[in-house]
């Protein structure tokens, strides 16, 4: 099992629609491995995705440069087991999603390794997303709509 941050992409069959790019591995995960994956959309045109698949398929997904693999696999894993560099990387990913540093600090403290679990980080990442819309002028999907609720990472965890 593994947790990832994955981008959304324009659906080549429907240019006005997006899809979670983990879907590119659905055949391997579901059909070949008999595994599962589930997602919740978060800020930054990204999804938090949990994957259950064989080690070989996980290695293939790990090699995809579009994806960021979280360094812990169990939602209850404590961040205290992470190195300072790993914690800083997660903090940087949260910033890249579009959360302000003050928001991250208010939710997870000055040092995310202190007292937090992977679930805490995932729940924070899933506090909101922006509603997408098709923009006729630019002929692309933009994410400037109102903030919307996300599916709980706990629900994602339960689906996989």
What is the beta-strand fraction?
Answer: 25-35%
Give the % helix: 25-40%
* Secondary-structure element order, N to C: EEHEEHEHHHEEH
Uncertain ranges: none
Number of strands: 7
Principal-axes geometry comes out as: globular
Largest sheet: 5 strands, antiparallel
| Total separate domains | 1
Note down, in words, how this protein is organized.
The chain is of the alpha+beta class and 160 residues long. It has one domain (2-159). Helices cover 32% and strands 31% of the residues. It contains six helices and seven strands. Strands 1, 2, 3, 4 and 5 form a five-stranded antiparallel sheet that branches. Strands 6-7 form a two-stranded antiparallel ribbon. β1 and β2 (14-20) form a beta hairpin. It is globular and about 45 Å long. The model has no long low-confidence stretch (mean pLDDT 96).
Core attributes:
160 residues, alpha+beta, two-stranded antiparallel sheet, 7 strands, globular
Question: In short, what is this structure?
Answer:
This protein is α+β, with helices and mostly antiparallel strands and 160 residues long. The chain contains 6 helices and 7 strands, in the order ββαββαβαααββα.
Please describe the topology of this protein.
Layout: E1 2-11, E2 14-20, H1 26-32, E3 36-42, E4 46-52, H2 55-62, E5 68-69, H3 84-97, H4 101-108, H5 118-125, E6 129-135, E7 140-148, H6 153-159
Antiparallel strand pairs: 1-2, 1-4, 1-5, 3-4, 6-7
């Amino acid at each position: 099992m593994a947790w990832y941050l994955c981008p959304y992409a324009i659906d080549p069959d429907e240019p006005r629609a997006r899809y979670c790019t983990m879907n590119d591995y659905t055949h391997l995960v579901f059909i070949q491995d008999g595994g599962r994956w589930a997602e919740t959309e978060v800020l930054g045109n990204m999804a938090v995705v949990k994957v259950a698949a064989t080690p070989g398929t996980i290695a293939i997904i790990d090699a995809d440069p579009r994806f960021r693999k979280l360094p812990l696999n169990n939602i209850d894993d404590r961040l205290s087991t992470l190195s300072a560099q790993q914690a800083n990387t997660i903090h940087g990913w949260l910033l890249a999603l579009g959360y302000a540093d003050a928001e991250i600090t208010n939710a997870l403290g000055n040092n995310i390794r202190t007292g937090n679990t992977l679930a805490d980080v995932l729940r924070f990442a899933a506090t909101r997303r922006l509603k997408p819309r098709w923009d006729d002028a630019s002929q692309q999907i933009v994410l400037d709509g109102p903030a919307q609720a996300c599916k709980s990472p706990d629900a994602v965890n339960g689906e996989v």
